[in-house]
Amino acid sequence: MCIPLAAISIITTLAGAAASAAGSVYSGMAQSATYKAQAKAAQYEAQAQREEGAYASARQDERNQRLTGQQVTATSRSGVDLSGTAGSLIADARTEGELDKMAIRRNSDFKSNLSLYEAKVSRMNAKTARTGGMIGAVAPVLSGVTSSFDTYQKYKTG
Predict the structure, then answer these.
(1) Rounded distance, CA 70 to CA 51, Å?
(2) How far apart are CA 102 and CA 128, in angstroms?
(3) Is the pLDDT score of 68 beyond 50?
(4) pTM value surpassing 0.90
(5) Which end of the chain is more exposed for a tag (fewer CB within 10 A), N or C?
(6) What is the DSSP string of 108-131?
């Protein structure tokens, strides 16, 4: 039995449409996976930045305490009363150290929050890519079905 040329045309058109649709779905899934990996990396980065900030802040606090202790010791050794100007200077130095510690935390929190936002954007992009792949698969299928129907109609009429 001989397969009519129209049937071959319809089969190849539908096969091409299916392959194109599958490629679109696969592409969307691959792009989605890439965005998900980027999101995970950004989350790890945010955690590392928080930990780095906590460590640097603790180190700054230790420096502040050490400096205050050295200042109190040196001032006391020299016989100066800590209740006056010397005490105020030491307190000011301690306050400056605390401000430095707070700036370290603020900067690490800012960096961490930025990384968390990048993770959120990557997750949204992953969903969009996956959806885009599915939507992109519809067009070739519809085109293939329409083209096949036209070919069938022409074959049927004549």
Answers:
(1) 29
(2) 39
(3) yes
(4) no
(5) N
(6) HHHHHHHHHHHHHHHHHHHHHHHH
